[in-house]
Amino acid sequence: MSNYNPVLDPIQLSKNHHFLKLKYFCEVKDGTHDTPAYVENEENTYPLVTSKDVNNGILSFENAKHISKEDYLAINRRSNVERYDVIMPMIGTIGNPAIVDTDKKFSIKNVALFKTNNDLIKAKYLKYLLSSQIVQKQLAFLNRGGVQSFVSLGILENISITITDDLNKIVAYLDSKTSSINELIASKVKLINLLEEKRQSLITEAVTKGLNPNVKMKDSGVEWIGKVPEHWQIKKFKRCFKIFNGKEITNELDIEDENGIDVFGSGGKFKKTDEFIYDGKSVLFGRKGTIGKPLYVNRKFWTVDTMYFTKFHKESYPKWFYYVLKVYPWHLIMTQTALPSIVGSDIENDYWCIPPYKEQQEITFHLDQLNDKTDNLILNINKQISNLKAYSESLIYEAVTGKIDVREFETAQ
Asked: At what angle do helices 167-209 and 357-400 cross, to 10 degrees?
């Protein structure tokens, strides 16, 4: 019983498959765990790839910081990355492997390196394995109790993988099947993006033109808005609502506390407290950090320093202004710095064309229905994407354990 492995022992392999320690399949290395000095991206500098540069199985240099040639050479004495090697984050989101499909010179930090000696079939098979539940469950089991998501080089070397003589056939089968699935997923992601664009367009139309296509129009005086209904009034936002700063809480409760008050920062709800800064209908929007993603709240809440909240004047329907701020051109008042920020008075002193209170309500009701319909469509599409991903994972699992006879697939081709 002492040698029982709760991850590997329940797995039934075909007679042609067996387990093998990863270190016997390929050389396992890692990059630096230190932070060298960053330099400007210019000649004789090199990208330093971290876990943030590996997403959805793709390596990107677009946002990678650069280091000097001296640091590059020092790091690469430990881990020289070459074409068709496989890399995988060792910290944060673990298990997102990518095949190096470039001869570009770069170094790695907190990233595992699996050397394949320029063998693309070996690289593809390894990528499938590292993404599979066989490896992912081992990583979770061996790394249990860790303070943060981190997997050591020693753990990686001793991960068990499945091996067989038919690697070429398995890779050909999985390439064909998963590429078709990935195309379906990509088409569904594209559909979600189109739905979001359509939603944004319809919200913009409703809060700038109203719902009546036959209403008499006038020039708004705002170039990007154009003409607006003649009976709408051009007002400064400060005539409609007042903006207030958030502040730090004095007592933090457990995030699962059902009686706790939600605390919002610019990125959304992130903790709870035992008091509220305001109770009622309000629109919250980021002061710094995440800008341009307003939230509508109708309950007791608290906001910290990075999040503004609003109190509305008479004849101002709060949720209508939530929709206005969803399409507001935040980039016109946002600082172009590493940590974007806005000033509340810039919003208060800006102009918008405001319909009568009853029309604000009517537009809001219309947009609420549109939102619900769009949300339900996106929810269903995301469920389809989740099912496709689960199907892809099951195909990989069955192929690398021998439950699928890939010879039948080849014959069918």
From this structure: 180
How many CB atoms sit inside 10 A of residue 15's CB? 7
Counting as low any pLDDT under 70, the low residues of the chain are 1-3, 143-148, 408-413
184: number of CA atoms within 13 Å, CB side? 16
In angstroms, rounded to a whole number, what is the distance separating the alpha carbons of residues 31 and 50?
Answer: 9
Q: Are 45 and 73 in contact (CB under 8 A)?
A: no
As given in the structure block, the two tokens for residue 49 are 């790839």
pLDDT at 71: 95
Q: What is the pLDDT of residue 224?
A: 78
Q: What local confidence, expressed as pLDDT, does residue 196 receive?
A: 97
Strand stretches in 171-248, DSSP E? 217-219, 227-229, 233-236, 241-244
> Using alpha carbons only, how large is the chain's radius of gyration in Å?
27
**Residue 305's pLDDT is what?**
95
Query: CA torsion angle for 202, 205, 208, 209 (degrees, to 10)?
Result: -130
Give residue 180's pLDDT: 96
Cα gap 286→284, rounded to integer Å: 7
Q: DSSP for 93-141?
A: S----EE-------EEBSEEEEE-TT-HHHHHHHHHHHHSHHHHHHHHH
What pLDDT score does 211 carry? 97
For 352, list phi and psi in degrees, rounded to 5: -145, 160
- Rounded to 5°, the CA angle 104-24-409 comes to 80
Residue with tokens 């399409």: 327
pLDDT at 148: 54
pLDDT at residue 147 in the model? 43
